[in-house]
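User: We ran a pulldown and think these components assemble together. Before we commit to crystallization trials, I'd like a predicted model of the whole complex to look at. Sequences follow.
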Amino acid sequence: MLCPTSPHLALLALLSVAGAVGQGEPCPSKMNLIKDRLQVNCSGQGLSVVPLALPRNTGILLLSTNRLELILSHNALEVLPTLQGLPALTRLTLAHNNISELLPGAFRDVGKLTELNLRGNQLRTLPEEAFEGLAGLKDLDLSDNALEELPQGLLAGLELNTLWLSG
Ligand SMILES: *[C@@H]1O[C@H](CO)[C@@H](O)[C@H](O)[C@H]1NC(C)=O
Ligand SMILES: *[C@@H]1O[C@H](CO)[C@@H](O)[C@H](O)[C@H]1NC(C)=O
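Assistant: Here's a predicted model for the assembly, 167 residues in total across the polymer chains.
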């Protein structure tokens, strides 16, 4: 049944206006015919926050090549999510998850990181090459894990300002 004065639509319209005023042009969207979902492309727009005024039926949101920080704290992640498509990411927060293992070169796809927070996970050991390629990393937080020792070459090639190892 059609309901032309739906309050949801009105709210959506208000949000759209607010978003358009606050954040410039909305991201282009089109139907992704393969996945049968509305795909909104906010890539490469210099965003520092995820836009609020997205179409309500957005099924796929592309956010690569922006200035976003990726914060995935307090989930139940047990493995590192795939980080491809985020080459400009500078800050990655994976604190308070359940990650027990990092593979060598785990952060190779996000080589511009300056800050990496792995606090409060279940890491027991780390491969020597865990942080390989992170030449710009300044701040590494490994506190509150189950680490008993660090491999000798772990910090080779890094120029950290701060390494957190408490707990
Ligand atoms: C998304 O937008 C960016 C920037 O305009 C463009 O380079 C890219 O090809 C688009 N991606 C898709 C899947 O449409
Ligand atoms: C984390 O992993 C442990 C051991 O596998 C499990 O007992 C616990 O429920 C997990 N925590 C969460 C939040 O998933």
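Residues 1-23 have pLDDT under 50 and may be disordered. That may be worth checking against your pulldown data before setting up trials.

User: Thanks, that helps.
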